[in-house]
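WARN no homologs supplied; continuing
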Amino acid sequence: MVELHVRPDRQRRGIGRRLLGELLRRQPHDRAVLTADPARPQPLPFYAKDGWEPLGDVRFTAGGPLRVVLGKRIEPGPAGPV
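OK structure emitted
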């Protein structure tokens, strides 16, 4: 998955948490990583509340925008179509 967004008028209803949880449940690994834009205030508390921990910062291209790398240990679930 590249990005996950919930429409602003649908936020704060648990939709993003359920979508991300379902995606993670269906993958076969015991950990996951993602990046978030530190310039946007909403994502970091959302992920922290769900147990994601900051691992470092990254720029994918020289001079590109800074991203925060977050990681989380998870219980792998049965693989299947999402």
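Residues 53 and 70 are 5 Å apart (CA to CA).
OK
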